[in-house]
Amino acid sequence: MQCCVCKEKPATVHLTQIVEDKMQKLDLCEDCAKAKGLNDPTSFAMADLMLGLGASQVLETAAAGAELKCPRCGFSQADFKKSGRLGCPECYRTFAEGLSGLLKTMHKGTRHVGKTPEALRQTRENADKLKSLQKKLAKAIESEDYEIAAALRDEIKSTTGVAAAKARCKTSIYFFAIRRNPRIGTGRMTAL
Amino acid sequence: MSSRVRLARNLRDLSFPGWAKKPERVKALEMILPAVCALPEMSDSFAEAMDNLTALDKQILVERHLISREHAAKNIGSGLVLNRTETFSVMINEEDHLRMQALRPGFQIREAWTAIDKFDSALEKKLNYAFDNELGYLTACPTNLGTGIRVSAMLHLPGLVLAEQINPIIQSVNKLGLAVRGLYGEGTEALGNVFQVSNQMTLGESETVIVERLEKVMAQIIEHEENARQTLLEKKPKVVFNHIGRAYGILANAHSISSKETMNLLSLLRLGVDMELFPGAQRSLVDELFLITQPAHLQKQVSDKLSAEERDLIRADMVRDRLKNVSRPVVKPMGNAGN
Fold it and tell me: How far apart are CA A60 and CA B105, in angstroms?
């Protein structure tokens, strides 16, 4: 059996993992295994346990050169591999890509449902409402229901800061409409 | 036996304690400590920096389940706020900036959640929590992300252990995504047949859903325990009475006994009290012995410097003394009819 990474040397390290009910197999030669940090049983156990196989992609990009570091606290992917813990709240943004797969296997879902600090609750609810309104708006424009679109735009306006909404919605409706029908009449547009 | 709900919270603008340098940890402590102490729940409390506590005092707090073993190992920059009735305990700069827990006797996880929820809501007005709209409360370890909640209860399950049903129960509880651990949490053995059941997932479900599910599962485990005891009494009464009688015999007469043996025998004694084999004896007597015979508690009562052998002698004296007024187990007629 050949090593699945270098495709040259014979594979001597065989790795089987189950991620999201799917079995994944890796057959590596000794050198490639070492390069991936699998020669050290303790660090491997932690990576296996904490990171799952999805993280190996992140680790690969790390090995390829530019190692990802949190701009705020200087925490790196390697530090996470060592400790299984992150450096600061900002790290969740820095390592978002690698973490998303990990969270999927670890938790029931990947989106928080539950308590929200009072001060943020309003903005969170608004953000959710805004998202759904904008979806509806896009649909309305798609089907050329401009009256509904106009009503939705007004609702969006009242949900967010008026000025921002005005600018965002006007242009988005305008360009959606144009893309749909370039010859769209000015009379219709003023209705918006 | 007891219930707890713990919430993990962090400050938005500081690194997590495990990664932060000392000055940053001290800064977090200085921000959090006064905010926690000002809460009405903590009006009668003590607050202490971990480096001011002796190793023995920390061990006592661990034995009382008021702090974690990890927190006991912390020094400068970590702290503890504890109210006098021991219903709220806040660890500062453990794995997260804040680990607050509400503790309640018996099976009261819902009450514990209501209490800590209120506590947390008051605290969020004074501290800037690290919170993300998508991911919820941000924690040092991704396993606590989202709600940051850990709901747990200590269950005394001697019936399931004696009936050899405990392993299948643990496995099925594990399948539900819940953890079953020993007396002192992660990686500890179930001394005295005491098991700690808790949730593991914290993201993607609301606190109430988690609390309700645990409540349901735990009620089922308790029911299984009661059934197991009933079946044991019907099918193998002599086996049960033999265990309880021997436990009483050793505890009431030993002159040297280890902490581990004490706990395992006290568990059987507690079972005997529940089965009304010790008229007049109370569960609380056993529960008290559970606590005061543990190493750090024993040392605190007698002397700071005791060898393990000396502790075993004193422990046996203490147990004998407490059991002085507890008469031998009285086996009910029903038991005599069995095998």
Answer: 50
The reply to whether residue A92 touches residue B10, judged by beta carbons under 8 angstroms, is no
Q: Cβ separation of B18 and A85 shorter than 8 Å?
A: yes
- The verdict on A102 touching B (C-beta cutoff 8 Å) is yes
The answer to whether the CB of B201 falls within 8 A of the CB of A108 is yes
pLDDT tens across B204-255, in order? 889 999 999 999 999 999 999 999 999 999 999 899 999 999 999 999 999 9
Closest CA to A38 of A23, A53, A24: A53
Q: Record the tokens describing residue B209, joined without a space.
A: 């859903």
Virtual CA dihedral for B32, B33, B34, B38, nearest 10 degrees?
Answer: 100
Query: To 10 degrees, the CA torsion angle through B201, B206, B209, B210?
Result: 30
ipTM above 0.90, yes or no: no
Q: Is A73 on the interface with B (CB under 8 A)?
A: yes
Residue A37 near residue A81 (C-beta atoms within 8 A): yes
